[in-house]
Amino acid sequence: MSFELDSLHHAITWLLKPVIIILALSVIIAVLEAGLAVGERLFGLKAMRNSGNTDAVVRLARHRLERADLLSRIPPMLGLMATIIPLGPGLAALGQGNPAQLAQAVTTAFDATVLGLIAGIIGLVVGKLRRRWYEDVLETLESQP
Length: 145
Prior knowledge:
Blueprint: H1 2-51, H2 54-95, H3 99-143
Helix pairs in contact: 1-2, 1-3, 2-3
């Protein structure tokens, strides 16, 4: 039984580094997505209205909203994973009289949580704004003769 638990512990501990890398990439993607949304607001929406192509706007809107929805949901979950993973070894270290290792684990845990929340918040805001913008564009296109 101990071998299985040790194997599980090592496998889960191994996940920490990839999860943190994905979280950092998620923040970068979220910032890029916010920049794209600003450009879209300044220039893209007007072009969409002028195109008159409702189907193209719906396809583009669906694609971009799905991307923002994924950004708003997945990074916070990964942040939670990266919060919990280092706490196990940190608490074990505390039991062995090593509070410094616990402090490092807690710091890593909180930093990962913040990364996940930053990406999630940006994704949520971008998604909500885009949803409103696309609805306005589609209403304008549908009201045109």
